[in-house]
Amino acid sequence: MIYLLDTADVESIKRCNEFYPIEGVTTNPSIIAKEKKDFWELVEEIRNIIGNDKMFHIQTRAEKAEDIIKEAMLLIGRLGGEIYIKIPICEEGLKATMQLNQMGIKVTMTAIFTPAQALLAARAGASFVAPYVNRLDNILGDGVDVVAQIVEEFKKHDIQTKVLAASFKNAEQVHKCALAGCHSATITEGTLKNLVSYPMTDSAIKGFDKDWKKVYGDKIILDL
Ligand code: E4P
Q: Which residue's alpha carbon is at the smallest distance from atom 12 of ligand 1?
């Protein structure tokens, strides 16, 4: 499974881009609005931080297919690079996805809550589908199970569309999606930190430090 960063917080993007093997950034209108910044300045800054080779999944706002396509063209023109147009699943979204697909533009269909929606999105030509794990868990659903069903469904039907699991609240949900064979997960810096840290690791690192210092003091290998 690969990791993307689910935020428009530029400081967090800078940190995670430096310290974690992230393959890109995902946003949605709520994530963008949270930053309270000029839209174009913000998304251009994100593109500058991650560079042209990393994925930028950026969501449209228009409701009609024709306008979604115009927004997609505008986003591609201004941001360039490896870009995926995020479109929530609905009739207009499917129409726009089919047309964008014919134009060779990559789409991520988002706000996916059922395997049936994922299949339709894939048939419309989406490159990625984004099922919302925690929002399902919040209503006594089973987000990881929905992800697992989508993975299975795509395998059975030989569908190449990738599953980009989204909406996470903890590291366990993310890891279970990995075990289910999910292609990618978009998560926050907090969840990335929870995936890397482990008390036994901290204690192992402290032990290395203590033992070394007994013989070599504060010197590192470069000083020897
Ligand atoms: C990402 O693309 C989704 O829009 C996002 O993960 C939703 O997360 P939330 O359920 O925490 O709002």
A: 167
Catalytic entry in 34, 37, 70, 86: 86
- Ligand 1 near 187 CB (within 6 A): no
Tell me, in angstroms, the distance from the centre of ligand 1 to residue 100's CA: 23
Atom in ligand 1 nearest the alpha carbon of residue 30: 12
pTM of the predicted model as reported, rounded to 2 decimal places: 0.96
Lookup result for tokens 């006594």: 140
The whole domain housing 49 covers 2-199
In a domain, 143, yes or no: yes
In a domain, 101, yes or no: yes
Closest among 128, 109, 35 to 45, alpha carbons compared: 35
Q: What is the CATH number of the domain that holds 111?
A: 3.20.20.70
Q: What are the tens digits of pLDDT across the range 25-69?
A: 999 999 999 999 999 999 999 999 999 999 999 999 999 999 999
Token reading at 132: 């919302």
Tokens in use for 136?
Answer: 């399902």
Task: State how far the Cα of 112 lies from the Cα of 1, in Å rounded to an integer.
Answer: 19
CA distances from 161 to 40, 62, 63, 137, 184 (A): 29, 24, 24, 24, 11
Would you say residue 27 lies in a domain?
yes
The count of structural domains within the chain is 1
Number of H helices, E strands in the chain: 11, 8
- Measured from the CB, is residue 59 less than 6 Å from ligand 1? no
